[in-house]
Amino acid sequence: MTITPAILAQLPLTDIDAVIFYKLDEITTDLICCDVVIAGRVWTFHEEAKGWNDLTAHLSALPGFRADWYEAVVKPSFEATKTVAFDRR
What we know:
The chain is built from three helices and four strands. The chain is of the alpha+beta class. Strands 3-2-1-4 form a four-stranded antiparallel beta sheet. It is globular, with a radius of gyration of 13 Å. The mean pLDDT is 92.
């Protein structure tokens, strides 16, 4: 999956209800993922997708967005973590 400007346009900041980051243990590495919730629909992205940095920059403009989400998700390694970076609900 590529996170294109067209996809970002479908994620208007005013419509986003929640942003949750988490990681999946893939045995030798962790994969950081992000769920964006809009009107009950969940959009799922991961850090290996082209455009990931554009997505995180877009989401960071949300009011009250948790800037330390990355540090909260990555530690400790190989353990499930879930971090709510934004919740309008």
